From TrEMBL:
The keyword Signal does not apply. Residues 363-421 form the Poly(A) polymerase RNA-binding domain. One of its GO terms (molecular function) is ATP binding. Keywords: ATP-binding, Magnesium, Metal-binding, mRNA processing, Nucleotide-binding, Nucleus, Transferase. Residues 533-550 have a biased composition (Low complexity). This is polynucleotide adenylyltransferase. PANTHER family: POLY A POLYMERASE (PTHR10682), POLYNUCLEOTIDE ADENYLYLTRANSFERASE (PTHR10682:SF10). The keyword Magnesium applies. It catalyses: RNA(n) + ATP = RNA(n)-3'-adenine ribonucleotide + diphosphate. GO terms for biological process: mRNA processing; RNA 3'-end processing.
Length: 730
């Protein structure tokens, strides 16, 4: 198995686009909190046993032998002489959670088979290799998906789930020491091979770019568990998948290279609660490369400007791994980041424990209105295909509802499905609905989205392998009418009136002011502030004796200011971002950052404080299509005043003249009918799907030939609002 060109530990002291926020080492409190966190992860069952780990290694070794035998067989069948047959080779690589070292018990292994140019994908990989695997008794549930955006063969080998991709590169012989991280591996290959290779290339690049692999892995395990518990771990429904969370965590590790996992978790929420989306998260400068492959570049690619939460992959061709995120799902994630930040502040003060951070999100208590989507088919194979297709379209329904209600009605799709034991091959999906925050509370809005739903159903029924036994039904349900089978054990909990805000509230803290905790926090604050810039005359003042037992708001504010100052002051100027033409160094600036409202920030140390610390960045109104792409981080999209500047007045940050989120939403309709924004999309893990085109809403007359006549009435009247919209009717 291949792990090309990668050491077991980090080799660089400084990685990323900017200097670290803090290089300070851990305090005694950090050590204690990290031990508690690791114990929590172990108790949560995130680590596999030694026996299971050994079995995985054995399965991968056996699979490597199989593909080597397979490539020799097809070489012999093509009439190659015996010497060439013996030299013929194929090699297995791993990527995804297994390669990152964060997989759990029972998790599948993302694998890639790299074969020579004469071993074709359709005839040889999905033909001969599929036949060989089907004849092996240790292989079960073999399921090829040759027509997927990233062609994959799924199966279980001795009980271990395998997702096997294939890349036939432009080599006659595959060397055992093949390094897939080299750009030359992408020469003269098809798009499917580029997508398949980039899974491995991105994973290995992430491990190269983090300063400490061990702390990165522990932190990533923590954030993956948190995202799953809070219902925002799902790339396919418009949230973030495994590779997205890995990139976000890796960036925090770069900003705090010597921190332990407990501090990295806290800083994760602090940083991304303030991140000014759609400024992208990047681990390194974007490489333009020499092969002419399309990469993420909002200057040239109009659709790249519409991405709301860009998280850019570090391997060429660099792409946005989170293009599925919508306005609604971004709003949900930002609320979760705020909640996480507030809880971590309580945990750091030793007033709560890690259980409160990982409390599952009460999805069916959070909203008053839901969409219920029921799907069914008649056979196991049809159910697997139909279910996978519908799941890949759910995020399209979110986009259509946002479009047809002008963004006022926002959606929260549940990332998983539900089923009743009495109804085989029948699955239900749910989507929470609520009005956009900031709309007039006195206005009684009604949303009739029947046409929107029918439009979505036509898209679903356009499935190439649709059968008359496959159907979908969508209905509006109130919270009190949610079916019992969605609840654990089929038992509805006691009546709850929790609102969405309450389900994301910070648990009541336990009062604790141990001298050890206070000393450790003061020590960390002092370390971080020593690297900062004094913003005011009192910003470096020590905590008074009367406040020695508390870390009050002023102290927290100073610590926060030190973090922000360090980040901003170490962001390089655009002209210094790169000294080489192939490097695209920078990040797009945005007028309309997708940040929480002042009410959602939950802290006086929010965006306002940050804006008072910085001055506007001079921006060119016209974006040139030549040269490099200038991108400071989401926290560093603005520059600090230099020492020679006038400090009498704090200067406000003015909007960028590039593009806004509102413009992006409005342009979604204008872009209807156009081609995909990129001919090459990365396969970062097998759940990645091709980008969806949001076409204009069509009339009911433009029907599909085989859509069953199902027209549920879906009209929403939010009674919490006061006034009917009768003016529009008149």
């Amino acid at each position: 198995m291949g792990s090309p060109g990668l050491s077991n530990s980090a080799i660089a002291t400084r990685v990323g686009l900017s200097e670290p926020i803090s290089t300070g080492g851990p305090t005694e409190l950090d050590v204690i909190k990290t031990r508690e966190l690791e114990k929590f992860l172990e108790d949560a069952g995130l680590y596999e046993s030694q026996e299971e780990s050994i079995r995985r290694e054995e399965v991968l070794g056996r699979l490597d032998q199989i593909v080597k035998k397979w490539v020799k067989n097809i070489s012999r069948a093509r009439g190659f002489n015996e010497q060439l047959v013996q030299e013929a080779n194929a090699k297995i690589f791993t990527f995804g959670s297994y390669r990152l070292g964060v997989h759990g018990p029972g998790a599948d292994i993302d694998t890639l088979c790299v074969g020579p140019k004469h071993a074709s994908r359709n005839e040889d990989f999905f033909g001969e290799l599929h036949r060989m695997l089907a004849e092996m008794p240790e292989v079960q549930e073999l399921h090829p998906v040759p027509d997927a955006h990233v062609p994959v063969m799924r199966f279980k080998f001795s009980g271990v789930s395998i997702d096997l991709l294939y890349a036939n590169v432009a080599l006659w012989v595959i060397p055992e020491d093949l390094d897939v991280s080299q750009e030359s591996i992408l020469q003269n290959v098809d798009e499917q091979t580029v997508r398949s290779l980039n899974g491995c290339r991105v994973t290995d690049q992430i491990l190269r770019l983090v300063p400490n692999i061990k702390t990165f892995r522990i932190t990533l395990r923590c954030m993956r568990l948190w995202a799953k518990r809070r219902g925002i771990y799902s790339n396919v429904t418009g949230f973030l998948g495994g590779i997205n969370w890995a990139l976000l965590v890796a960036r925090i590790c770069q900003l705090y290279p010597n921190a332990l996992p407990s501090m990295l978790v806290s800083r994760f929420f602090r940083v991304y609660n303030l991140w000014r989306w759609p400024n992208p998260v990047m681990l390194c400068p974007i490489q333009e490369g020499s092969l002419g492959l399309p990469f993420w570049d909002p200057r040239r690619n109009y659709k790249d400007r519409l991405h709301l939460m860009p998280i850019i992959t570090p391997a060429y061709p660099c792409m946005n791994s989170s293009y599925n995120v919508s306005t609604s799902t971004l709003r949900v994630m930002m609320e979760e980041f705020r909640r996480g930040k507030e809880i971590c502040e309580v945990i750091e003060a030793s007033k709560s424990n890690w259980d409160s951070l990982f409390e599952p999100f009460a999805f069916f208590e959070a909203y008053k209105n839901y969409l219920q989507m029921d799907i069914a088919s008649e056979t196991e194979e049809d159910s697997r295909n139909w279910k996978g297709w519908v799941e890949s379209r759910i995020r399209l329904l979110t986009l259509k509802i946002e479009r047809d209600t002008s963004g006022v009605l926002q959606c929260h799709p549940h990332p998983g499905e539900f089923s009743e034991n009495s109804k085989p091959f029948h699955y239900s999906y749910f989507m929470g609905l609520r009005k956009k925050q900031g709309t007039n509370p006195r206005e009684n809005l009604q949303f009739d989205i029947r046409l929107t739903v029918e439009d979505f159903k036509r898209d679903v029924y356009a499935y190439s392998f649709w059968k008359r036994t496959m159907w979908i039904h969508i209905s509006h349900v109130k919270k009190k009418d949610i079916p019992n089978f969605v609840f654990p054990g089929g038992v509805r909990p006691l009546h709850s009136t929790k609102s969405t805000t309450e389900t994301r509230s910070v648990p009541k803290s336990r009062e604790s002011n141990s001298p050890q905790a206070v000393t450790s926090r003061k020590k960390r604050k002092q370390d971080e502030m020593n690297r900062g810039v004094s913003l005011t005359d009192s910003s470096s003042a020590a905590v008074s004796g009367s406040d020695a037992g508390l870390v009050d708001e002023t102290t927290a504010k100073r610590q926060f200011e030190a973090d922000v100052v360090d980040t901003l002051s170490n962001v390089r100027r655009p002209e210094n971002l790169s000294g080489h033409d192939p490097e695209v160094a920078g990040i797009v600036k945005s007028t309309s950052p997708a940040r929480p409202s002042s009410a959602a920030c939950g802290s006086s140390l929010g965006i306002t404080t940050m804006e008072k610390l910085v001055i506007e960045q001079s921006l060119q109104p016209n974006i040139s299509l030549q040269g490099t792409l200038d991108l400071p981080d989401g926290l560093g999209g603005v520059q600090l005043k230099s020492e020679g500047q006038n400090n009498d007045k704090d200067q406000e940050i003015k909007p960028s003249e590039y593009f806004t989120t509102e413009q992006a939403l409005g342009a979604a309709t204008e872009a209807e009918g156009s081609s995909s924004y990129s001919t090459i999309q990365q396969s970062l893990d097998v759940e990645e799907l091709e980008p969806l085109e949001l076409t204009a809403s069509t009339t009911m007359a433009s029907s599909s030939t085989h859509v069953p006549a199902q027209k549920p009435l879906i009209r929403f009247s939010f009674t919490s609002l006061a006034k009917a919209t009768s003016n529009s009717a008149s």
